[in-house]
Design brief:
The protein is mostly beta strands. The chain contains no helices and eleven strands. It has strands at 4-7, 10-12, 24-27, 30-32, 45-47, 50-52, 65-67, 69-72, 91-94, 112-114, 132-134. The protein starts with a strand and ends in a 59-residue tail after the last strand.
């Protein structure tokens, strides 16, 4: 079956949860205020696309290709990014709610997460080398056997990262967030004001 090829098209305020997106290859397209909640995006290819003010919560991402994709102001609850096509996977997130999503075992080197909510997100066995987490909330997020070398957490908060179970060489943290590296030691730290 031949797949559709759609280039440089804007999709505005479309409810794809009711009328599914046509399977195909989307190149340099913009999706603005669209609803993809609970949609099946299996085998769909997105290249150099931007999603703005979209709801992608609980969408199926099986073998979905996300190549140089920007998500801005999107609701993205419960997404399993580990099911995506791993080839060329490149994403960035700005002001997104990624709560309860999973990036298990993905290579996300140099990825930017800005002003995003990462409540209970699973970063287990994920390679986040050189990634930037700018003003992100990591409450109950999981880092287990993750690589966060050279990653920047200086403006983020509520993370709990065990240095013994993750590779953190040259990662950057603020002095305010240093307690997030010591949580598993059950010690009390008094910070001078």
């Amino acid at each position: 079956m031949r797949q559709e090829y759609i280039k440089e098209k804007a999709f505005n305020k479309i409810d794809f949860s009711q009328n599914p997106l046509i399977k195909g290859e989307y190149d340099s397209c913009n999706f603005i205020s669209c609803d993809f909640s609970n949609s099946d995006l299996t085998d769909t290819i997105f290249m150099e696309c931007e999603f703005e003010n979209c709801n992608l919560s609980m969408a199926r991402l099986i073998k979905t290709a996300l190549r140089e994709i920007r998500f801005r102001n999107c609701k993205m609850l419960g997404l399993h990014f580990e099911n995506c096509n791993k080839f060329g996977l490149t994403v960035s997130f700005d002001n997104c709610n990624l709560s309860h999503s999973s990036f298990y075992q993905l290579k996300l080197k140099m990825t930017t997460f800005r002003n995003s909510n990462l409540l209970e997100v699973d970063f287990s066995e994920c390679d986040l080398t050189g990634s930037v987490f700018d003003n992100c909330d990591f409450i109950r997020a999981t880092f287990e056997n993750s690589i966060i070398e050279k990653a920047d957490f200086r403006t983020s908060f509520n993370y709990s990262i065990n240095p013994e179970k993750n590779r953190i060489k040259k990662a950057r943290f603020s002095s305010d967030g240093i307690t997030g590296l010591l949580d598993n030691y059950d010690i009390e730290i008094d910070i001078k004001e």
